[in-house]
Design brief:
single chain, 246 residues, mainly alpha, 13 helices, globular
């Protein structure tokens, strides 16, 4: 479980991001944007240390409007990053979420779910701004395969997987009004997760996402469940309990 001692940052402006008064918080966000605007690449360790502090900021944020504004501000940081730093900053974000997720209590979960939704949205918005450049898209999708769509790592909580699966098509739809995104490429990590996961609930969640009729707007053929499939599932359930799912 995350605590004040294991996530407390040492950088003063990180502490200011957790302030309840907006002027202090806005100044801290502006300072952070200035810090991140440099064109030189940050190291993985730089970003991991930064995200340890940013996670603490969200953890300590205790008013609904403050939480939402902070999540939006933190996600908007992606917009000013170079492509190289975009990948590194996102990698640190996902690794931090994967590591800290088991310690997020029920009272704090909603704000982190909102933060993740904002990051998925702003990441797609960034890729759209880069005209869906192939190499950058592939590098971003590799990050998703490393953490939320990782099919084999038992340390990645299924709750994190479920949330990203559920919001994935929603957030692409919001930023890609003209349906120009390479959706067939974007859903590859989803398809891989559905094929490789040993957890039935994960596979079912992926199946539901890939049956979303909105995918047809990008030219993706969506397999619709027919009555025969429903009957087969009902018969399988009537056959009795088949043991625990791995």
């Amino acid at each position: 479980m995350a605590t004040d001692t294991d996530t407390r940052p040492t950088n003063p402006f990180i502490k200011q991001l957790a302030a309840n008064d907006r002027p202090t918080r806005d100044r801290a966000v502006n300072s952070l944007r200035t810090y991140l605007k440099r064109s030189a690449a940050f190291s993985d360790l730089d970003f991991l240390k930064l995200w340890k502090g940013l996670f603490y900021c969200m953890w300590m944020s205790d008013r609904a409007r403050t939480q939402q504004r902070l999540a939006i501000d933190l996600a908007d940081l992606l917009s000013i990053l170079s492509p190289e730093n975009f990948v590194g900053f996102n990698a640190a974000f996902w690794r931090t979420m994967g590591r800290e997720w088991p310690g997020i209590d029920a009272l704090r979960m909603d704000k982190f779910l909102f933060l993740i939704r904002q990051y998925v949205n702003k990441s797609f918005e960034y890729l759209r701004g880069q005209k869906w450049e192939e190499t950058l898209v592939e590098r971003y999708l590799e990050l998703l395969k490393e953490v939320p769509f990782n099919a084999k790592d038992p340390k990645i909580p299924n709750g994190l997987r479920y949330h990203v699966i559920d919001i994935y098509v929603d957030e692409v739809e919001k930023v890609d009004e003209k349906r120009k995104a390479p959706m067939e490429v974007l859903v590859k990590p989803l398809r891989a997760l559905g094929l490789e996961s040993k957890t039935k609930a994960v596979r079912e969640r992926v199946k539901e996402a890939l049956e979303d009729e909105r995918l047809e707007e990008w030219g993706i053929e969506v397999k619709k469940k027919d009555e025969d499939e429903d009957e087969d599932e009902e018969e399988a359930e009537e056959d009795g309990w088949g043991g625990f799912d791995d």
